[in-house]
Amino acid sequence: MTIIELVLSLAAILGAAILFTNAVEIMGDRLNLGAGAVGSILAAVGTALPETMIPLVAIFGALLLGSGSAAAGEIGIGAILGAPFLLATLALFIVGATGIGYKGRRQTGSEITADRQTAIPDLVFFLACFVPAAAAGILPLPLPLKIGLAVALLVAYVLYVVRTVKQGGEAADDVPARLTLWPFSSQGPTWAVAAQLIGTIAVMAFGAHLFVGAVEHLSKSVGIPAGLIALVLAPLATELPEKFNSVLWLRDNKDTLAIGNITGAMVFQSTIPVSVGVLFTPWRLDFITAVAAIFAILSGIVFLGFLLRKAPLRAFYMLGAGSLYIVFLVTAIIYLVRG
């Protein structure tokens, strides 16, 4: 029953996210926000909502329920750290493996042509935000410093958004021609767009609530910490499917989109969700979550080093990121067996 609840909750979250992105892009176009804002900000928010909604519901649910919901707080922290960890390890591995697998049909073979003017600042931004956030979870900080860190992360993301808008550029995709849930051939009116927007957020929140409850039940039944389940399962189910867009882009020689899809997500996941965790949870990383955070940082530093070199970026360089994910899983299993 718990597995069915997990599957249904994740299906609700992902399905609602698709409908949300459809509505938010149309709404952005109706408000004349411009192609850059619609593509780089609104669509990005839509794709980030599934993995962000889970920790938000878990954390604020824990606050409302009080001390008896400690597992929900663990789920929130695990889900927050799981997204940047997966992006910096398994997602980069997939990019490298795809580059090698499609080298026969790619114009550049197994060489990845990244837009270094975008990817390098993204990674610097990620490390500048995520390193102090991870350190704050390992080294105890007084409340004023934690508040200051959370505010700094929020301000940093606002500055990133402003920089993105100023850079301009076209959206990765055209604005959808029609509203998905509008049953008529005519374009949906603005009230229908707003209704789909609000409704899908509610469905995602409900799905996240089911997910948190299912993880708590699974944790009790199998004896695995809820935070570890959320750290591994939440990003695998919500973040990883979206990153398979990079596989298609690499196949079609759109390397800039493939890399930007990952580094841009790393920027968001190192700021907004983390700031919520710092402010509204004890933000204490146990051994497993600390290892995940350190591996994410280590992989980010290595990848940044490859980009800073003038030499071509080879696909096989990124395979090492996947090894960190495997090492993490082995470490987690050994840690659980030894108790």
What does this structure look like?
This protein has 339 residues and is mainly alpha-helical. The protein has one domain (2-338): A middle domain of Talin 1 (Up-down Bundle). The chain is built from twelve helices and two strands. It has helices at 2-30, 35-65, 70-101, 116-138, 143-167, 190-222, 226-243, 245-251, 255-269, 272-280, 287-308, 319-338, and strands at 111-112, 313-314. A two-stranded antiparallel ribbon has the order 1-2. It starts with a helix and ends with a helix.
SSE series: HHHEHHHHHHHHEH
Approximate strand percentage: under 5%
Helix content: over 70%
Q: What is the level-2 CATH architecture name?
A: Up-down Bundle
Q: Oligomeric state of the chains?
A: single chain
Tell me, what's the shape? globular
How many E strands? 2
Tell me about the largest β-sheet. 2 strands, antiparallel
Count of the domains: 1
Q: Helices and strands: which structural class?
A: mainly alpha
The stretches of 5 or more residues where confidence is low (pLDDT under 50) are: 169-173
Task: State Rg.
Answer: 20 Å
Number of helices: 12
